Structures are given as C-alpha cells and as structure tokens.
Structure prediction request, 362 residues.
Amino acid sequence: MSMPNIHRHHLHSHAGSGSHRASDAGAHSGKHRSSAALAGGKFAEERRQPSGRSAKARQTWGHKGAAAGKTASVLCVMSAFLAFCVALVMELIAYSRHEAANPFFNGFAGVCAAAALGAGLYAQIVQLHHWSRRVRSRLQVGMTVAVLTLVLAAVNVYEKYVPAAGCAPEVMLAGSAGAPAQPEDRSLVKPGWYGELQRDGVLAVVSSFAENASESRQFNRRLSKPVSYATLSVINLGSPVPVVLRSLQVGLLLDSGEEVQSLAVKPLLSMADGDKHLVRRLAEPQTLPAGAMVPDIPVCLEPGFQWERVCGVKITLSAGTVVIPGRMMTVPEKRALLDKATASRSSSASTNLSAEAWFKDL
Prediction:
C-alpha cells in the first residue's frame, strides 16, 4: 500500500470514530434531556397539586365567610329592632305611670343593642373581604337603631343612679351652707296652705308643711333629693257609687293662671323596706268604697316652692277633675278651724243621742 492510501484510511477511520462519538454524545444528551423533562413534569405536577388544594380551600373559606357575614348582618338587624321595641314599650309604660324606666327591661334592651353592635362589627369585618350591597344596607339600618337604643338605655341608667348618688348631697349641702338650719317644728298644728272640698259625699283635703316641720323632714329622709312636702287625703263619706282616684299626682293652680304639676313620688324613693310599702300604697288608680279613705298621699314639689301663690289644687276623680280651693293659714286660723270641726262633730253626736232618747220615750 502506498503512503497516500494509508493516510486516507487513517483519516477515514478517524472520521468514523468521531461520528460514533458524536452519535453517542447526542444519544447521551438526549437521554439526559428526556429524564430532565420527566423529572420537571413530575415536579410541576407535584407543585400544581398543592396549589389546587389551597385554591379550593380558599374558595370554600370564601363561601363560608360570606355566609357568616350575611348571618351576622341578619342577627344585627333582629337584635337591634328587638332592643328598640323593648325600649319603646318600656318608655311608654314609664310615661303613663309617671315613674322611672324599669331597670330589668332597660338592661335587657341594652344587652340586645350591644349584641347587635357586636354582630354588626363582625359583619363589617367580613365586608372587607366579601363585599355585599345587601349586607351593607342591613348594617346601616341595624347599627343605627342599635346605637340609638344603647344611648337611650345609658340615659335611663344615668337618670336613675347619678342623681341619687351624687346630686342630692350637693343640693342638701348647698341649702345647709347658704342658711343656718332651722329648729324642727314638732307642734301638732302648723302653719301652711290648707284646702278642703266636700262634694257628692266625697271629702278631699290638702295640707302643706314647712321645710322645718317634722313631717317634711321625716319624709325627706326617705328621698334621694329634698322636696317641698304636702299631703292629700280623700274620704268617701257616703257616695252611692265607689270613688275612683285615677292619678295620685295633682295640679296646682297659681295666681298667675299657670298650672304646676306635682312630682312623681316613686322615682324619688330610695327603695328601702319602708319605701316598698309606700310604693304599694301609691298604686294607681285607687277605688274607695263607701266609708273608705286614702290618707296622706304625698304631694311633692321642688324645694322652696311658694305655696302662697297657690289658689287651688286640681285632682282627678272618677267624675272628672275637681279643684280644691284653699289658702295659707296661720296657727290660730288652723286651730279655730279644727275647733269648729270638732264642735260640729260633737253637736251631730248629741243630736243623734237626743233622737235615740226620743225614740226610747216612744
């Protein structure tokens, strides 16, 4: 073999081995790429599976959160209107009876209003993630009614407890600091306004007492604040039909033509054991059969009330309103009136005895 042929054979064999190596390298790289693709597919599938589960969980939580927000908004509206209805009925009853709001119903209305506010706040938080126009409308109505009812309950609590605990001592201290305390008047007959009316077998008597009278001071010890004190007594002397005293509050007609309403007694009481008996005695209305009486009904007015300006006292009986005329009387005038009433009773008793003796003589 010649030299050129050897050289060509060597080049051919070298080229063949290079092509074999290239094909082997290509196959090896292809295997690596296929295995990488398979591994990447499995990894992507593994990554897609947890993300799908989390999306499904988020979707489920979203539906539950939206449903919880709607339920909370419904509870907010229902609780708010329940509290408002209870507060409205309570205020109407208190106004008709001229007394303070019932503490039990006031507390119940406050609790319902607070529950409505709590449900409304929860629904408002849910609204940040799942907004709904219907829920928004419910919250506007429910939370507004709940806030108004809660303010009303707080005002009732303030009026009931704050004046009794803080204002009454200040009034008493101011009165005692401005003028020296007068000695207590323990006499049987005292000066003051006196009025009397007898009509259709019914006798009504009104008598006022000064601030230093023993009756006034004894009654003011039972109250949360001092008042100007008087009493009303109604007696059924022989009316053919029962007498009904519809209201224990009276109206005072002044010399200027104005009318002043007396204060309600029950809200002023400290509700001690003795006061509970007085509250039961002050029930409205009161029916008086023949021979019955309602003695010493408290008539309370603001401290320092000028009884000199009173021309008459208006009370409400079964037949309507009647006015008891009267005026300020001194101690001698009251004693003369008392002696006259005693003399008339003794003369009527002697007349009855004379009639009985005359019948015996027959």
Summary: The mean pLDDT is 74. The beta strands are 192-199, 202-208, 228-236, 243-245, 251-254, 259-261, 286-288, 293-301, 310-317, 320-329. Helices lie at 3-97, 103-127, 133-178, 214-220, 273-281, 331-361.
